[in-house]
Each structure stands twice: as structure tokens, then as C-alpha cells.
Design goal:
Largest sheet: 6 strands, mixed
Number of helices: 4
Order of helices and strands: HHEHEEEHEE
Distance between the termini: 10 Å
Strand content: 35-45%
Radius of gyration: 18 Å
Shape: elongated
Number of strands: 6
Structural class: alpha+beta
């Protein structure tokens, strides 16, 4: 049975360390950032502006009786939030950050598809959860674009 750490490690190895992703940002955090925290502000800045990825992975186990045995269904959720400052003086032009945010998610989907159906043998299969799109969001008083998507994976085992 896979753990949250197993899934996170597989994603780090197969998705987050890929240069197609790190070309967007080197700030890929495996937790949710408190954007107003002074201690965390340095963690979300890359290339002169706010530019970071938050990855929140969770594991939800359930069980069901199947005749004389019990089957465990483990659901994994991987939620990805990419936040990019709208306009970094001297670095970006108007509209560029939105386009780069869209391109990040297109690149992410492509990598996850090539990652395979079992995410490095950590799950039995996965599905694309949802993509609510890209929205304007202020981090502190800085205008940013934030896109969010979620993947869901399943693992079955007999207990």
C-alpha cells in the first residue's frame, strides 16, 4: 500500500524535477503557503517576482467487505496551484504572465500523461480531477494569476 510520501516522491522524480517544469519556476513547494507570512515570502519569489507552485497531496483510505475479505480503496488527491505575478517591472510585459500560467498547466498535463497510468507503481490508475481555470488573486497587495488543478488516483488492496 502506497503512502502519501511515496506518491510525492514519484511526482518529484517524474514531474517536478523535469526541466519543462523547472523552466517556469524553481519554487515547487510540497505544502500550502501562507502568503502573508514574512518568513514564507522568500519561498515564493523566483526570477524577481512571485512565481511558485504549491503541491498538496492527501491520502483518503476507505474499506468495504467483499465476501470473506476486506478491500481497501485508497484515494490520493494531488492538488496543484501555480501562482505568478502579473507584471514584474523590467521582466514581463502585460499579458505574458497569464500566457505563461496557461502554458504551465499544458506542460503539466503532458508530463503527467507521460508519467504513466500508475505514477511509478504507486497507484493502480488515476484520473484528471478538475481544472477550475486561472483567476486573478492578490498575494499581499501584489496582483497575480493563480491556476489550480487536481488529479485523483486510486489504489486497491485486499486486507
Amino acid at each position: 500500500m502506497s503512502s502519501t510520501a511515496d506518491v510525492q516522491d514519484a511526482w518529484i522524480e517524474n514531474v517536478w524535477s523535469d526541466t519543462d517544469i523547472t523552466d517556469f519556476t524553481d519554487k515547487i513547494l510540497q505544502y500550502e503557503v501562507t502568503a502573508d507570512s514574512e518568513a514564507e515570502k522568500a519561498l515564493i519569489a523566483s526570477d524577481g517576482g512571485i512565481n511558485f507552485v504549491e503541491v498538496v497531496t492527501s491520502r483518503v483510505p476507505t474499506e468495504r467487505e467483499l465476501g470473506n475479505s476486506t478491500e481497501a480503496l485508497i484515494r490520493f488527491y494531488v492538488e496543484i496551484r501555480y501562482t505568478r505575478e502579473k507584471l514584474v517591472p523590467g521582466k514581463t510585459i502585460d499579458g505574458d504572465a497569464y500566457t505563461q500560467t496557461q502554458l504551465f498547466f499544458e506542460t503539466l498535463y503532458s508530463l503527467v500523461n507521460t508519467f504513466g497510468p500508475s505514477w511509478g507503481s504507486t497507484v493502480d490508475y488515476w484520473i484528471f480531477g478538475d481544472y477550475p481555470g486561472i483567476a486573478s488573486e492578490d498575494i499581499g497587495d501584489i496582483p497575480c494569476w493563480r491556476g489550480v488543478c487536481r488529479f485523483q488516483a486510486f489504489q486497491y488492496t485486499t486486507i
